[in-house]
Specification:
This protein folds into 4 domains: 154 residues, Cathepsin D, subunit A, domain 1; 93 residues, Rossmann fold (3-Layer(aba) Sandwich), CATH 3.40.50; 64 residues, ATP-grasp fold, A domain (Dna Ligase, domain 1); 93 residues, ATP-grasp fold, B domain (D-amino Acid Aminotransferase, Chain A, domain 1). The chain is 22% helix and 34% strand. The chain has 10 helices and 29 strands. Helix 3 runs antiparallel to helix 4. The protein is an alpha+beta fold. A hairpin with an 8-residue loop joins strand 6 and strand 7. Its EC number is 6.3.2.-. This is 30S ribosomal protein S6--L-glutamate ligase. Keywords: ATP-binding, Ligase, Magnesium, Manganese, Metal-binding, Nucleotide-binding, Protein biosynthesis, Ribonucleoprotein, Ribosomal protein.
């Protein structure tokens, strides 16, 4: 390495932590280096623990806040110049200055009263560095404006995240979310949604679980079952209140689960769907059948899932009988035109972060008009048209969902959206297409929670 001359203060960068510009005090009297940190929190497995912390990189200002994380290398007692001893977490990271870089150990502590966000001790000063104590900033100047640049957002490093998967089931999708997340170095915790309870207040909203307040999560991936939609979305709303990034928001999940509301949203966005009718009074049975058209028709419960509560009525008389039966059960339902040319097939498009990342054609079991895989249907990868792709993306966007399964029918007049699923299963489509869908979900999560600056209003 070339020789570097340091003054008593220099601009430095810690790129692995997402800190491209810091002022550091050079102190050869101190053995260890220290970085200003707050909200210090340990997470991850006990065998390989990590620490997450926040940094105010601009001295005297807390309106720029960077979230960082790193593996814990050690925890040791450090005695300050005033004689006080503090037990600190120690991490290793790369120091970059003057076009050169090398690894250093850094302790985490509160330096809010100090003018420099970082102190560089003699352990971090390589042999090729010459200290000129009477000088100041001999290396190139950096600028705090970098924290608000597009370049930082693009180049921000991936960091270890703490992620919650809201799920009550030990199924393929949940296991894959844990497996893929941990393989990327994240800590993924599966939380039973119904075991969560909430402290609802204006100053410090919290989510509790198993007698303890849940920690700050970088992201929440909801896998909310249809039977607990109301409570599950209330838990998600609580996480949203605390500022946690949720892959699918509470409003989108709620709207997608109510089939009537969902179809009204799709209609409002002028997205193609089968002709649909709804009425509350039994005296309007003939009228809603007339709105849909001639038999056969589909009669569907508003909260049906996996093909349950969906009936094909092949004649007008059969439709009236099914409607009377549903009304007798005080069930809410809607009536839809049956798209004959679909021939028991539909297309599931998996939309992640505004893009169709995989699609499969699902074919119903012999004699069944429903194509759900849970009902014995089969699936294979399929190439979709540009119109089908655009329709799926628009449907997912209409509900504001980061990850969704959009079910389409191929009709003579173009693609028709049957449903937008806010908790799509990953097993069928990953096996049919051979794609790592869960990996793409994590790509989106990582992009959303990169250590970019958060600006707070003063």
């Amino acid at each position: 390495m070339d020789t570097l001359n340091f003054g008593w203060e220099e601009w430095v960068a810690l790129p692995d932590l997402g800190l491209p510009a810091l002022k550091a005090k050079i102190d050869t009297g101190a053995r260890t280096s220290a970085l200003h940190a707050h909200n210090i929190e340990v997470f991850g497995p006990s065998a390989k623990p990590k620490v997450r912390f926040n940094v105010y990189p601009v001295a005297g200002k807390d309106n720029v806040d960077i979230t960082c994380s790193a593996p814990i290398k050690d925890r040791r007692d450090v005695t300050s110049s005033n004689g006080e001893t503090e037990r600190r977490y120690v991490i290793e990271t790369k120091l970059e200055v003057g076009g050169q870089s090398w690894p250093i150990e850094v302790t985490l502590t509160d330096r809010s009263s100090m003018s420099a966000r970082m102190l560089l001790g003699r352990q971090a000063l390589a042999d090729h560095i010459t200290i000129m104590a009477s000088e100041k900033r001999l290396q190139p100047d950096l600028d705090y404006d970098v924290y608000h640049s597009a370049a930082m957002r693009k180049s921000a490093p991936k960091r270890a995240l703490r992620i919650a998967v809201l799920s009550r089931e030990d199924n393929y999708s949940t296991r894959r979310l844990v497996e893929v997340g941990e393989a990327r170095g994240h800590t993924v915790e599966v939380i039973d949604t119904t075991r969560c309870y909430m402290a609802i207040n204006a100053m410090a909203p919290e989510v509790h679980y198993d007698g303890k307040r849940l920690p700050r999560y970088d992201a929440v991936i909801p896998r909310i079952g249809a039977t607990i939609t109301a409570y599950g979305t209330a838990v998600i709303r609580q996480f949203e209140t605390t500022g946690t990034y949720c892959v699918n928001g509470s409003a989108g999940i709620t709207a997608s689960r109510d089939k009537l509301h969902a179809h009204q949203i799709l209609a409002g966005k002028k997205i193609g769907m089968p002709t649909t009718a709804f009425a509350a009074s039994p005296r309007d049975t003939a009228n809603i059948l007339g709105l849909v058209g001639s038999a056969p028709v589909i009669v569907k419960l508003l909260e049906s899932t996996q093909g349950k509560g969906v009936v094909l009525a092949e004649t007008k008389k059969a439709a009236e009988s099914v409607i009377d039966a549903f009304r007798g059960l005080r069930a809410n339902f809607l009536v839809q035109d049956f798209v004959k040319e679909a021939a028991g097939e539909d297309i599931r498009c998996l939309v992640v972060d505004g893009k169709v990342v995989a699609s499969m054609k699902r074919t119903g079991a012999e004699g069944d008009f429903r194509s759900n895989l849970h009902r014995g249907g089969s699936a294979k990868s399929v190439r979709i048209t540009r119109e089908e792709r655009e329709t799926a993306v628009r449907a997912a966007r209409a509900f504001g969902l980061g990850t969704s399964g959009v079910d389409l029918l191929r009709s003579e007049t173009g693609p028709k959206v049957l449903e937008v699923n806010s908790s799509p299963g990953f097993e069928g489509i990953e096996k049919a297409t051979g794609k790592d869908i869960v990996g793409l979900v994590y790509d989106m999560v990582e992009a959303r929670v990169r250590p970019t600056a958060v600006r707070r209003r003063k």
